[in-house]
Amino acid sequence: MKWYDRIATIDRRIIYVLLTVLVILPFFVKVTIPQKIMPQTQKLFDFIESIPPNDRAVMISFDYSPQTQPECHPMAKALLKHCFARDIPVIGLSFDPEAPGLAVDALVSVEREIDSLATRKEDSIVYGVDYVYLGWKSGRIAAQLDMGEAIAGVFPRDYYGNLIDSLPLMQNVKNYKDIAIVVILAAADYPIDWIRYPQTRYGVKVAAGLTAVMAPQYYPFLQTGQVSGLMSGMKGAAEYEKLVLEHGYACALGTAETGMNSQSMIHLLIMLFIILGNVGYFFARRAGKAPR
Amino acid sequence: MKRRLPLAICFIMGLVMIVQFFIPHPTSLAFSSVIYKWIIVLMAFALVLAIGNLIRHHGEKIRRRKEDWPYSIVTLAGMVAMAAIGLTWGIASDSLYQKIFLNVMAPLGGTMFALLAYYMASAAYRAFRARSLEATLLLVSAFIVMIGFMPFGQYLHPRFPAFAEWIMTVPNMASQRGILLGVAFGSIATALKIILGIERSWLGGKD
């Protein structure tokens, strides 16, 4: 077997072993590589920065499942830390039936982290005052449109069964007029419905945190201003974590930084193997062994 | 009558819902709010149908001892157990339901998705060949985007991130916009065909 045949037919088990090693490595060898912030991530951060404290709320639609948790969960946590640190009320909800468990985990873990660092009672996070989680609802588009009239009409009770009207935060948040922006954290095409329906009808601002494969679809909306900011995949999550840390809203980076290193290693490995495969193919073609 | 009545309801409701979307009058908004609530309830019933279908499908599989039938027992037992645990002890953040979701469901889902990385790496190595000009262009742009979006891409060349961003905001956006417009026009045409009764496959039956 010629050398070019050999590099074009490497056993897949070798690829699998290398891939496993490179995914695990960054978890043990901590490397922080300074990275450039993408304009769309900066735009979302700046928008949240521009919301006055204790004014209008940020609505976060948790629409991701465990499969895409590594990409979307760090986005959720970084965004929540940013909002809570700036005293911006948060209203969570979900239209993906798998999402509530993860939404509760993100909200409660950030709440506990902030509470553990709080030195005064006013600095701690209180459910119903600083945030509310409405839970899951069927009929996504209908629910999104109906919330433009009254959120309580669509979600009469929150995820835990409390009457919406009994929660102090919801006394000031009735519909989209009281929402500064809706941020959709999703692994599927959920943000497009928010753009098509509630934004068209009620003018609500929309931003998104999406998996890397979904993000390219939203560039046209970013250019037109229909999307006010975008976190794109693990990179977007790592960038937002960095911005939150740099502005003093968090004490440490989240998991996206490590995830980003693992992902970069895999990308390099895949590129290396694609180059090897193509070099092998090129020389085999020159020798008349491979089809054109 | 069996076909005319649903067609008439579809025509009237289709037109009314289009018109009301553009009329912000309180009467119009109150009407649409009622319809939206109906839709939410109807969609919830679809979930009940889905659960019924799941039970019937797997029940039948277990009864007939079809291939891999023991997995159907796991599916049904999992569904019943999670529903019972949630209804009995609640779904709060420190509940048993939440613990099972985070420690069983989440890792299993993540594992299934992570396997894709192995298949993708192997498939990219075997199939991603610069056989034609188009394939070469795809290969080169994929490399630039991947390197540009890596944290150390900027150290390979300072212009890599900007070039990757350009690929995303110019060629990618142009094609995405074309696809979006195509889908939008297709959706409008299909909606009109359904409202006007030209497209009737949603009614079921042979014609």
Evaluate the radius of gyration of chain A.
Answer: 22 Å
Summarize model confidence as the mean pLDDT of chain B. Answer: 91
The CATH class of the largest domain in chain A is: Alpha Beta
Shape of chain B: extended
Shape field of chain A: elongated
The structural class of chain A is alpha/beta
Distance between the termini of chain B: 15 Å
What's the number of structural domains of chain B? 3
Portion in beta strands of chain B:
under 5%
Give the N-terminus to C-terminus distance of chain A in angstroms: 20 Å
Structural account:
The complex is a heterodimer of chains A (292) and B (207). Chain A has 292 residues and is an alpha/beta fold. Chain A folds into 2 domains: 1-32 and 263-292; 35-252, Rossmann fold (3-Layer(aba) Sandwich). Helix content of chain A is 51%, strand content 13%. Chain A has helices at residues 3-8, 12-28, 39-50, 69-85, 100-117, 140-146, 151-154, 168-172, 191-202, 219-224, 233-246, 256-286, and strands at residues 57-63, 90-94, 131-136, 179-186, 206-210, 227-232. A 6-stranded parallel β-sheet of chain A has the order 3-2-1-4-5-6, with helices on both faces. In chain A, helix 2 runs antiparallel to helix 12 (256-286) and helix 6 (140-146) runs parallel beside helix 9. In chain A, 50% of the residues are buried. By secondary structure, chain B is an all-alpha fold. Chain B has 3 domains: 1-89, no CATH class; 93-127; 129-201, no CATH class. Chain B contains 7 helices and no strands. Chain B has helices at 4-21, 26-63, 69-89, 96-127, 133-149, 153-156, 160-195. The radius of gyration of chain B is 26 Å and the shape is extended. The mean pLDDT of chain B is 91. At the A-B interface, helix 2, helix 5, helix 6, helix 10 and helix 12 of A face helix 2, helix 4, helix 5 and helix 7 of B.
